[in-house]
Specification:
By secondary structure, the chain is an alpha/beta fold. It contains nine helices and 14 strands. The strands form two sheets. The chain has a seven-stranded mixed beta sheet with strand order 6-5-4-3-2-1-14. Strands 7-8-9-10-11-12-13 form a seven-stranded mixed beta sheet, covered by helices on one side. Strand 8 and strand 9 form a beta hairpin. The N and C termini lie close together (9 Å).
Length: 258
Amino acid sequence: MPSQLVTLGCSGGIDQHLRTTSLLLDQDILIDAGTGVGDLPLDALAKIDTVFITHSHLDHIAALPLLLDSVGALRTQPVQVYALEETIDALKTHVFNDIIWPDFSRIPSPQQPFVVLDALTVGQSLDLGARRITALPANHSVPAVGYAITANESTIVFSGDSGPCEAFWSTVNTFDDLKHLIIETSFTDRDFVLANLSQHYCPRSLAQAVEALTRNPQIWISHLKPGQGDQIMTELNDYERLGRLRPLALKTGQILSF
């Protein structure tokens, strides 16, 4: 049976119609927990067993504490959260600290908490049923990873937030079965300096990076800044190599089957 990755949110900001990054895999796995999670009904929220976080920035974790508060008492098992050790430490220190939010890693009891926070490392793979999730290298302003999702002999790669990262592209090229590549592009070329400083892509830097890609997946562009999406996509398609690959803007509600 095909797996489905549903885009709950993929924007670099919010407005009436935009949601921040969160991808739902087969109803039970979240990749990031941005504001898009809040559009799910309660019964769908309660089905989420596992969350993989790319990094600690608010637009990727905003809905996680609210999710746990909403469904913790409805579940028989804690939600399992995986992320880099630095990201887990940030969640414990700055979110689940009984000041910003209750520490659901020990509520209602340390023996039966609402959430279990577990560290993973770059290159580590976890098998969840017929799906394999692998943490990929990333280069961002805080420790970060991307993720490869493999099922049914096909792979989707999600960069998370990352600027140029040679190790990421080298790893992407090892997936012979790569079907979809979701890559962030947050800024227009006018903000090339800002993109580099904040370790995000703009069309110019992505055009340079994608020269290393030896596979031929469908490319989806995520994390577009509100109000700049059309300009970013126009600039991306003006670069010859990127234009040949025909990147498309990822949209809320988009379903990728594999």
